[in-house]
Amino acid sequence: MSAPQPLPDADLLAPDKPATEPARTRRVPAFLRRPGGALGALWLVVVVVGSLTAPLWVPYDVTTQDLANRLALPSADHLLGTDPLGRDLLSRIATAGSLPLLSSALMLVVAFAIGLPLALVAAERPGRTERFISRATEVLLALPATVLLLAVIGIVGNEIPLVMAVFGVLLSAAVYRVMLGVAQSVRQRLYVDAARVDGLGSLRVNVRHVLPAMGTVIAVQGAQLFGIGILVVAGLAFLGFGPGEPAPSWGFMINDASSHLFDGPWLLVPSGLVLALTVVAANELADALAARGGAGAKRRSRKQVRAAAAAAAAAQGESGSEQDAVAQPVPDDAVLAVRDLRVSVVGGPDLVTGVSLTVRRGTVLGLVGESGCGKSMTARSLLGLLPDGVAVSGGSIIFQGTDLVGRPEKELRGYRGSRIALISQEPMVALDPAFSIAAQLTGPIRRHRGVGRGEARTIAAELLRNVGIVDADRILRSYPHQLSGGMAQRVCIALALTGEPDLLVADEPTTALDVTVQAEILSLLRALVRDTGLSVVLVTHDLGVVADLCDDVAVMYAGEVVEAGATAGVLDEPRHPYTMALLGADPHVPDGEPVPERLASIAGTVPSPGTWPEGCRFAGRCLFATDACRTPFPTVPAHGGGLVRCVRVEDLALHQISWTPEEAGAETATTAGGAR
Ligand SMILES: Nc1ncnc2c1ncn2[C@@H]1O[C@H](COP(=O)(O)OP(=O)(O)OP(=O)(O)O)[C@@H](O)[C@H]1O
């Protein structure tokens, strides 16, 4: 395919809403704008810096005793007073801080170094891998941590950093559990799909897109566990496990103070307060980080997360393919030929069955139908991007002569982005909020086209101009949240074009946009097809969009194609009652035709997967259904090369019956044994 040419009217397409200039100055992080977060962070910085640099500034040696000055209250000589041996409390507290702080940090590193990668792997591989890791971590969680720590101390002695590293291993199971939930949720985001479409490998998807989105949760967990670690070290020292006298430790100092509650009550205050404040500060910081993460999540709440897959067994559904009357040959100019496709929940019901589609070079195929008919599942199977737990269980997807079904993920990556690209219905969530538009465009351009940074930026600007963005340089500097919906969708289309694909899968690309912007995006797609020879599979609810943009159309109902053919033929002379009903319920009226007084309606809802009836799946809602519709039957040819899946097709055509309440009433009155 040749590179997209600039659209003739590109410069006339002004941005639908000006984007604000990117922020040029670095602002204070949101968590530091909360008093708890700011004070917590400040206290932790003071304690960490103060403890680690203690040997440089403490006024007294921690072992120097002054028995004449024991249990002294704060004074100019001893700012925090002295202990029962007259040693300076400030010097001892500051010096003792480094052990709990460093041991906690070590514990954190160990816990996250084990728990986080395991969570990423498990989130990426639901099923056996995830189950195995989860069971193993459950075993780890079931171990009695205190007994184990005491056993470790028995073996290694008072090596607190080593003991805390072992504690980190135990904690990694808890870290894994929290991180798994987050990673699973992040992996459902459209921009992660987009990155996979773009051909990024698993490591890069995780590092570039999944991990940054988990940043807040990691920080919150880290801050909380850090506080817990400090308490554990202090607790061990309180019990006598830790640096022995005369070396100072927070836990031992509290223990010491507890035996002088009556003769020196002040002794408990400095050490107890520093320990308590440090733990509270870590928790306050965690709260502030969590609140900031919540705000971020709210900002991105337009994202629709698909339900997680129910089963993860590896069994494939039975083939059970339907033998259609029309064995559809693959035309020479076909870019894509889907034959008898079946998509199923693994170990569960079929979501799509017997779907056959053909997309010719430089044409647009519309997939239309009510919500839940299987349009998205069909479209996503073309890219190998089905949700976790859903898989292609039969049929073939022949793209430019190669059957993609059953190909390993690595091979599919070579197709995604460079040969088959995706535009999703939610442009805002298809773009990663953490990266500028320039970064999101130049990365794939460099990968797909093997060019340097400078040239990639030039190509990115050209692509933006090709999709009708006038001020490409400003948009390149912007971040997704600074774009309007229409502008973001243009950027997504430019992103889809970075690999110069031959086939574009557009899953309801205009649903989230307002009407005027929808028209602009459709005109942009039309121009791209016309000027570049791109082929498009367009998923839509809207018959107006089909009429406007599509050369061919496939009408889907309850997981199967019920009517397909050239758009003009199907829309002008619908043969299947469901197509008739959709057209009768469509509020768009062609120019010059009278506006109907009343739109037709379709009673009931699409049956869910697993509850499809025998025979015609539309029979339960069809005004013209008879007993003959209750038994399975094949499709029949229609629209010169298309097909229709209705046993009464000849009958209905003969009587010129259409889906209006009046016609239906007359028809049903004469239909002996008609069942609805
Ligand atoms: N992750 C999933 N696991 C199991 N079933 C699913 C999953 N996602 C969707 N389904 C089911 O698959 C069927 C087809 O869904 P699909 O999203 O393809 O429909 P659609 O026609 O594209 O609808 P819409 O226009 O609302 O997106 C529906 O019954 C839906 O409930």
Summarize the helices and strands and which ones pair or pack.
Layout: H1 35-52, H2 54-57, H3 89-96, H4 98-124, H5 128-142, H6 145-156, H7 160-187, H8 190-197, H9 202-238, H10 250-258, H11 268-299, E1 334-345, E2 350-360, E3 364-368, H12 375-383, E4 390-399, E5 402-403, H13 409-415, E6 420-423, H14 427-430, H15 437-449, H16 453-466, H17 472-477, H18 485-497, E7 503-507, H19 515-532, E8 535-540, H20 543-549, E9 552-557, E10 560-566, H21 567-572, H22 577-584, E11 636-638, E12 642-644, H23 649-654, H24 661-670
Parallel strand pairs: 3-8, 3-9, 6-7, 7-8
Antiparallel strand pairs: 1-2, 1-4, 4-5, 9-10, 10-12, 11-12
Task: State the main characteristics.
676 residues; alpha/beta; MetI-like fold; Rossmann fold; 3 domains; eight-stranded mixed β-sheet; four-stranded antiparallel β-sheet; 24 helices; 12 strands; 47% helix; 11% strand; elongated; disordered N terminus; binds adenosine-5'-triphosphate; cell membrane
Question: If you had to describe this structure to a student in words, what would you say it looks like?
Answer:
The protein is α/β, with parallel strands linked by helices and 676 residues long. The protein has 3 domains: 30-52 and 97-299, MetI-like fold (Orthogonal Bundle), CATH 1.10.3720; 334-550, Rossmann fold; 573-670, no CATH class. The protein is built from 24 helices and 12 strands. The chain has helices spanning 35-52, 54-57, 89-96, 98-124, 128-142, 145-156, 160-187, 190-197, 202-238, 250-258, 268-299, 375-383, 409-415, 427-430, 437-449, 453-466, 472-477, 485-497, 515-532, 543-549, 567-572, 577-584, 649-654, 661-670; strands at 334-345, 350-360, 364-368, 390-399, 402-403, 420-423, 503-507, 535-540, 552-557, 560-566, 636-638, 642-644. The strands form 2 sheets. An 8-stranded mixed sheet has the order 6-7-8-3-9-10-12-11, sandwiched between helices. A 4-stranded antiparallel sheet has the order 2-1-4-5, covered by helices on one side. α9 (202-238) packs parallel to α10 and α9 runs antiparallel to α11. It is elongated and about 115 Å long. The model is unreliable at 1-25, 294-326 and 664-676 (pLDDT under 50). Bound molecules: adenosine-5'-triphosphate (ATP). Adenosine-5'-triphosphate (ATP) binds next to α12.
